[in-house]
Specification:
alpha+beta, 6-stranded mixed β-sheet, 9 helices, 6 strands, 27% helix, transmembrane helix
Length: 306
């Protein structure tokens, strides 16, 4: 049975690799090799980087006049005047779908899988221990032993860019404001292969950072960072899987960062765009609101210099 399970995994990896190559050709996303198995199964690092200027307020040569007409930023409500203003705070924005029987899994098992994925999203995107302290223990503890063993070497070793599609970590030297991130998105559960449940998650997380101490921001996007995370989690349970493979895995991954520090992002961390002194970025080609929309198509271009 164990040898059969290993054969099934090898076949799955081959088919997953074909799907990953096809997706890369379509979206021009960036693939980062982690280890052979991790790259084939996940494509971690597929996040594109999209930079947005705070506002096009100087584009028509009236920058000073326009700035004077913009009200001051309220740091107690940093998301005001952004599309995230009315979103739920923190974990309240991550809701599980109504439980129902799916394939061989009972309604209770489906509910349990969705709840575990919710806990995983909270641990990977909202938990201060990981966000600020870069401690992945809670997140990794929710995954299958083999998945945990593959991801562990990516933390604290300089390999953080290979994990950034799955987690959010704040760059050293940057500070979040004392408000919860804003969250919007959806979760749905579907049947996978034999003894598998696939939980599709598609969320946008908005983080409010302390403002640039050398400037007076007039636009909240001077210090708000947006992360889109379109991630599949796969629950594997049953005799076809070895003990180390049973539990929660990661599947297809996509997403982007918006209004970010490109330098920090390339190192696997989040920081506001003002941290990139001296860098030239490409202006966004879509309306600002598009990057806050979890249903929008993933952009194929990057605004960060290569």
């Amino acid at each position: 049975m164990r040898e059969s399970a290993r054969a099934d995994v090898k076949a799955m990896l081959r088919s997953t690799r074909r799907r990953r190559i096809e997706r890369w050709l379509v979206t021009s996303m960036v693939l980062v090799a982690i280890v052979a198995v991790l790259m084939l199964m996940v494509g971690v690092g597929m996040f594109d980087r999209v930079f947005a200027k705070s506002e096009e307020r100087a584009a028509d040569g009236r920058g000073e006049q326009m700035t004077s007409l913009v009200p001051a930023v309220d740091f107690s409500r940093p998301f005001e005047r952004t599309p995230a203003a009315a979103w739920a705070d923190g974990a309240a924005g991550i809701e599980t779908p109504p439980p129902m029987r799916i394939g061989e899994f009972s309604a209770d098992e489906v509910a349990s899988a969705a709840a575990r994925v919710r806990d995983t999203l909270i641990a990977s995107r909202l938990d201060p221990a990981l966000l600020r302290g870069h401690d992945p223990s809670r997140y990794l503890g929710l995954l299958a032993p083999d998945a945990r063993r593959q991801l562990q070497p990516l933390f604290g070793t300089g390999r953080e860019p290979e994990a950034q599609a799955l987690v959010s970590m704040i760059a050293d030297g940057s500070e979040l404001l004392p408000v919860e991130p804003k969250v919007k998105g959806t979760m749905r559960v579907a049947a996978g292969g034999p003894d598998e449940l696939v939980v599709h998650t598609n969320y946008v997380f908005a983080y409010a950072f302390a403002a640039d101490p050398t400037a007076s921001p007039v636009d909240p996007m001077d210090f708000v960072v947006v992360v889109r995370a379109d991630v599949e989690y796969v629950l594997r349970d049953g005799p076809r899987w070895t003990a180390g493979s049973q539990g929660l895995w990661y599947g297809n991954v996509g997403g982007y960062g918006y209004s970010i520090s490109c330098d920090a992002y390339k190192k696997g961390f989040l920081a506001p765009a003002y941290r990139d002194e001296g860098l030239t970025h490409t202006s966004q080609k879509q309306d600002r609101g598009t990057y806050f929309d979890p249903n929008a198509a993933l952009p194929a271009e990057s605004g960060c210099p290569s």
